[in-house]
Amino acid sequence: MTTLTITAKGQITLRRELLQFLGIAPGQQVEVNKLANGVLALQAVAPHGLEAFAGCLPPPNKALSLEEINTIIANGWAGQP
What predicted TM-score, i.e. pTM, was given to this entire model? Predict the structure, then answer.
């Protein structure tokens, strides 16, 4: 069990291992739910829209030139692989 200290402003700081356990990254929001008997439940808020999509693909092996990108686009429109 981890014990946290409440500051004079009523704030707490979660230790790194707790953030990692919850899967929470810096800048991400946390949802707090009040349960019975004075228990609070924390969970990461799932990102929405573009934020949910950004970073989900692995980085490319190499960067493509503008000419290579245009060729790929033209072949796609022409129905060629």
Answer: 0.51
